Amino acid sequence: MVPPDDASLQLQSLIDRIGRGEAAARRELLDRACNRLRRLAARMLHGSFPALRPHHDVDSVVHETWLRLFQALDKTEPPTVADFFRLAAHKIRQVLLDMADRQRRHVVRQGLSGVDQTDERVDETYNPAKLAQWTEFHRKAAELAEDERAVFEMHYYLDLPQTEIAKVLNLHPRKVSYLWVAATERLTSELDGDPAP
């Protein structure tokens, strides 16, 4: 059976080529990882940032993330697939938060902040308090212990199944499950009432 384009073995081969200075491998790595980026962008856009949907589709989120990753890979060379996914998770997080912040500022500039809040088209994504909540949630996720953060980012942001995370991080699947539970419990206790994973 031929492995999928974004299989960890294939991605690691491309990462190794980047480390050897092969410029073309950078673009190929991002092209192969694009399906995962697309799945993640769709899940996060619809789940965490629904008010962005009238203004941004999945392709616009993926496109901006792809560009940021491409630029980042010009300055840094993640040595492993796990490191690449951590970088990708960070960039996706930045893109969505930046889009929400830009849209919130646009709404304020247009004087639409006084729109009747009972209007079904209005949701809290642009609300400064809600945006601050999401920003804090993502900041706290970035501050998790390294092993918990790696598992959380791969599962929550990149939508990787725990079995795949176990392979990427070279951990037993039960350890991955334990780290996921520990990370989500820590975030829940630190962000009581804030967005939950």
Unreliable parts: 115-126
User: Strand percentage, roughly?
Assistant: under 5%
| Overall SS class | mainly alpha
The main pleated sheet reads as: none
Number of domains: 1
Q: pLDDT average, as an integer?
A: 78
Q: Whole-Å distance between the termini?
A: 34 Å
Radius of gyration: 18 Å
Contiguous helical run count: 8
The total of beta strands comes to 0
Write down the overall geometry: globular
Helix content: 55-70%
Order of helices and strands: HHHHHHHH
Key features of this structure:
mainly alpha, globular
Topology:
Elements: H1 8-19, H2 23-47, H3 58-75, H4 81-109, H5 128-142, H6 146-157, H7 162-169, H8 173-190
Helix pairs in contact: 1-2, 2-3, 3-4, 4-5, 4-6, 6-8, 7-8
What does this molecule look like?
This protein has 197 residues and is an all-alpha fold. Helices cover 70% and strands 0% of the residues. The protein has helices at residues 8-19, 23-47, 58-75, 81-109, 128-142, 146-157, 162-169, 173-190.
Short summary of the structure?
The chain is mainly α. It has helices at 8-19, 23-47, 58-75, 81-109, 128-142, 146-157, 162-169, 173-190.
